[in-house]
Amino acid sequence: MTHADLQQIKERELAGRKKMVLRCCMAAGCMSLDSKGIKERLEKALAEAGLHNDVEVIGVGCMKLCCAGPLVQADPDGPLYTNVTAENAPSIIAAIKGGRSALEQADPQSPFFTQQQSIVLANSGLIDPERIEAYIAVDGYTALLNALTELDPKGVVETLVSSGLRGRGGAGFPTGLKWGTVAKSPGAKKYIICNADEGDPGAFMDRSVLESDPHSILEGMAIAAYAVGADQGFIYVRAEYPLAISRLQTAIKQAKRLGILGSGIFESPFNFNIDLRIGAGAFVCGEETALMASVEGKRGTPRPRPPFPAESGLWGCPTLINNVETLANIAPILRHGAEWFAGIGTLRSKGTKVFALAGKIQNTGLIEVPMGTPLRTIVETMGGGAPDGRQIKAVQTGGPSGGCIPAQHLDIPVDYESLTTLGSIMGSGGMIVMDDSTRMVDVARFFMEFCMDESCGKCIPCRAGTVQMHHLLEKILARKATARDLAKLEDLCDMVKHTSLCGLGQTAPNPVVSTLRFFRHEYEELLQDEAADPNAAGHDTAASPVTPAI
Amino acid sequence: MAAKTLTIDGKLISAEESATVLQAADEAGVKIPTLCHLEGVYDVGACRLCLVEIAGNPKLMSACTTRVREGMEVTTDSDRLQKYRRMTLELLFAERNHVCAVCVANGHCELQALAYQQGMDHVRYDYCYPQWEVDASHRLFGMDHNRCVLCTRCVRACWHIEGAGTKNVSGRGGRSKIITDLDDAWGDSKTCTQCGKCVLACPTGALFHQGSTAAEMQRDRSKLEFIVNAREKKQWSV
């Protein structure tokens, strides 16, 4: 495979295009509403109308407005049909022939679409994720080719450093610095891992990227491997994402067939292979040391750091772990240059961020916006605010490790630092909107239950502390708690945060801490008088045993 | 091997380069409380009792897994650490059924000793009272999950001292459980070599020798007779 070969594939692909393209969303959300059947009916209707020589139907990745799926769009800026059913197929085809369609449509010029800036999702909803030719036709794999032929590994790391890209998995560690550390770590054998164990409740960004543009991840991984000197990669993807797994398998097979993965890639001395590892449903396996234990075939529990994976990771070898979205940014950065990327976003948070909008919001779906976009723009202008005329009360970011941002702070720019000052985190991109019918203590209880169930059980503060915090929250909600119980809860939050072994435990109290910070009165309203409590004076232990976890 | 100089609780000490903070402290006569640490097997830093403060590091570090560094300033016993240790112990006592008075390990239990040592005189959290089973299927040993603190010392002794790999952990969070083979009855295990190292490793009364339990449970019924005779017949025969 050479540059000329890539060009040839691209030209052949473009030449084979028909005059008009009907794009049909084939991501997991729309597939669950039979978009596969819709695509077949569209093809049949085309043949019946005699249009099959001029129009083709292609299955594409996520078209972003998930709440209105299944989605079908004719050409990039044609009408975007929403809530399509198989019965609508003839009507859509009739519209192509010039008639007017009475079908439900969304406006592609609405802020939900126009305010987006796509880097990670640039190909999502536009190309067929199951064909490598479609990816090559949008200049796919040229970044890898250029890196291998024009840049040395050091040059790739430098590009990443000057781009200012930070890890999209949650913590926001500078990606270039991480790559540089792994590149400098001594060792003949190095590994690279793509963390696709997306587990935050309500988050589906990584799934959509994997389903919509799997080759961009392979390309990002290959570039990363070249930069740090690795020859083996693993994609750790959760078993709950069967469509993502199958598309990744297809993509890996196609890349191997074309010699883009394997030995002597692009006729260079660089060898690189990628294998999939399927997670078994443990949230903690998104933590990097637990993830590595799981890849090694061990029980997925974290271990203390240092040593960091960059120094001693998989089987004791230097290992680079990056999140899906981080890796999806790599090829665009190399293609368009570090300055281009550094020109997007804010001073310390560069580029764009993908968010999965969910909860009490009109437009549920996937958005990608420049860093620093005000939260209000995201949830009100793009998301359309809360449904049924209700008011937005708070926005939860960062999943169980994050916090709630109350409505009065909606004007903050969404970047790593601003969210941290409000006691939340950027996280991986889950954004759950709550309206004024939501009780914040309920929200805290929900996330605490999640952490309690997902604690690996290794360290005591996380294992036993989350059980007690959950119990205290239940007690508060049952109006059986006193001010002393609330003090106990706050004490536990502090202790679990500072003494837990890994990030899961250290951040488990965040939803409680952040709701207490902004909605303390909601907790206090539920408290009982100490004097009225028959269980006061230290006898409360016997009165209400914690519901056993077993 | 180069030596490192560091301060532990204001005391200037030297330690071997490869030493952990726990080893260095031990050598210098500074006692750091531990529970999951066991001499002879590798450390996992799970119990969080040996957490120490290191100057310049915002995070608390487990002494058993942190290597010494030149010029390191370690604090092992601040008010904050003492508070966290007591809370950790309280969480353990509330988590399962640790009732010292009816435990085979009463008086020689590390959990009990730690609670005394850390001044834990009551538990502020509601007890969980879980229903855990007792595996008494083995001829020589027994496992009472009610007393287990999930320190995994037995698992590490089984894998890394004996090399049998019989013991393991299943489940997660509060449902974690030490298992034999694939969660089989211990008495049916084909891999257990009956070496008893897991029992030696256990800090509490979770793992016990069958014989010793029976011995402690022998009942002296003549005492009942003595009390009845004394009450009713006013006879104090010894």
Structural summary, described in words:
The complex is a heterodimer of chains A (550) and B (238). Chain A has 550 residues and is an alpha/beta fold. Chain A folds into four domains: 18-110, Glutaredoxin; 140-342, NADH-ubiquinone oxidoreductase 51kDa subunit (Rossmann fold, 3-Layer(aba) Sandwich), CATH 3.40.50.11540; 352-438, Ubiquitin-like (UB roll) (Roll); 441-543, Up-down Bundle (de novo design (two linked rop proteins)). Chain A has 23 helices and 14 strands. Chain A has helices spanning 3-15, 28-31, 35-49, 89-96, 111-114, 132-137, 142-150, 153-163, 175-184, 205-212, 214-228, 242-257, 288-295, 324-336, 338-342, 375-382, 416-421, 440-454, 460-477, 483-499, 503-507, 510-524, 540-543; strands spanning 20-25, 55-60, 72-74, 80-81, 105-106, 191-196, 232-238, 273-279, 319-323, 352-359, 365-370, 392-397, 403-406, 430-435. In chain A, the strands form three sheets. A five-stranded mixed sheet of chain A has the order 2-1-3-4-5, with helices on one face. In chain A, β3 and β4 form a beta hairpin. In chain A, α7 runs parallel beside α11. In chain A, 55% of the residues are buried. Chain B is an alpha+beta fold. Chain B folds into two domains: 3-77, Ubiquitin-like (UB roll) (Roll), CATH 3.10.20.740; 85-216, Alpha-Beta Plaits. Helices cover 28% and strands 16% of the residues of chain B. Chain B is built from seven helices and ten strands. In chain B, strands 2-1-5-3-4 form a five-stranded mixed sheet, covered by helices on one side. The mean pLDDT of chain B is 92. Classes of the chains: A alpha/beta (550), B alpha+beta (238). Chain A binds chain B through residues 282, 284, 299, 303-304, 452-461, 463-468, 471, 488, 491-492, 495, 498-501, 538, 540-542, 544-550, and chain B through 44-48, 51, 59-62, 65-66, 83-84, 87-88, 91-92, 94-95, 122-132, 149-150, 152, 168-169, 171-176.
